[in-house]
Amino acid sequence: METSCRICSGPVKGSIDLGVQPRGNAFPKPDQLAGEFFYPLIVGMCDSCAMVQLMAEIPQEVRYHDEYPYRASNSTVHSEHFAGVARRLLRTELTGHDPFIVEIGCNDGVMLATVADAGVRHLGVEPSQEVAALARSKGVRVLPRFFDEETAGEIRAGHGPADVIFGANVIAHISHLDSVLKGAVTLLGPNGVFVFEEPYLGAVVEQTAFDLFYDEHSFVFSVSSIRAAARLFGLDLVDAEPLAIHGGSMRYTLAKRGARLPTAAVGELLASERARRLDRPATLVELNRRAERVRDELTALLTSLRADGKRVAGYGAPAKITTVTNYCGIGTELIPYVCDSTPSKQDRVVAGSHIPVVAPSVFREDRPDYAVLFAWNHAKEIMAKESDFAGRWILYIPEVHIL
């Protein structure tokens, strides 16, 4: 399979094939299974700009809807992280006269609530009505739209230039990234910055984290690909900072061309990526091979445990559970349920595999022998919360193992 890069129009060949998949965050109700949306989950890297991207394009209206279930504030780790991000931006960038920050995909206001409490002008751009309502309940001002060049122009006309545009785990979700970057140029003030955090390709490769590929992740960024994309649209990559959140992310800072000098970290990370061949499609081919090994070993382990009469549950229902269960062919015969603390996901099922999602109380009452930790990036937080669990944890990142 071959297509053209969404950023530079260079050639992109498929290197990772995770099969036919449903939407990662669909979580339909049991009576909504007819007509589920499926697409081929094939991932490639552009030969020209090294941008890693899904080969298929799923309309954003299909992916983000009024019942979109993800709530960033449900994680204590996330809440603390984004409160810290807000405090840092208030201290470093939002210090002038009447500063203004725009957040793309503000979700339930987990970051902007701290900005609002500080009395700083702000605007969240959030297309999903239910989570937008939660943000408003925290005192956050929200525009119910998708962010693009047109929206950016309207915001600037109504509010003036932005000192900061921020996004977390959303910029890589937007297939029209070219319009987002054009919008950033339109909306930013002369010395403004576009700061965003996304899962990092280097961490995905290192950890064999193939489950981070799903319909919402139109791209998986690297420092190399972001620098190339920024240059195409009149922006410079002026800083890059590794983060531990989400199992390994990167915080990128873009500014208008010539406005700021790049930090030393940018050059160091670019050199590291070249050494690790993160700009070569062959690296994705090797990742695909390792994903196949994880698939085979995980299904073999679960099948063996079932044959031995062991009871296995799932823990955590992030979007990546959809990729894992459908790629591995795991259904209710191997994992009868998965528990998750998000109320909007409970009493629904994982798309495609149709594993029921239940409250954590069910897990504690049932006391299974084993639990597959699908929310592996929250392992420390979850294991501390479930310290009374007498069974054993199964993890599949970076390889299948039992704790």
UniProtKB/TrEMBL annotation:
GO terms for molecular function: methyltransferase activity. It comes from Sphaerisporangium album. PANTHER family: BLL5978 PROTEIN, TRANS-ACONITATE 2-METHYLTRANSFERASE-RELATED. Residues 245-398 form the C-methyltransferase domain. The keyword Ribonucleoprotein does not apply. GO terms for biological process: methylation. This is Class I SAM-dependent methyltransferase. Residues 5-62 form the Methyltransferase putative zinc binding domain. InterPro entries: Methyltransf_Zn-bd_dom_put (IPR013630), Methyltransf_Zn-bd_dom_put_sf (IPR038576), MeTrfase_14 (IPR013691), SAM-dependent_MTases_sf (IPR029063). Keywords: Methyltransferase, Transferase. The keyword Metal-binding does not apply.
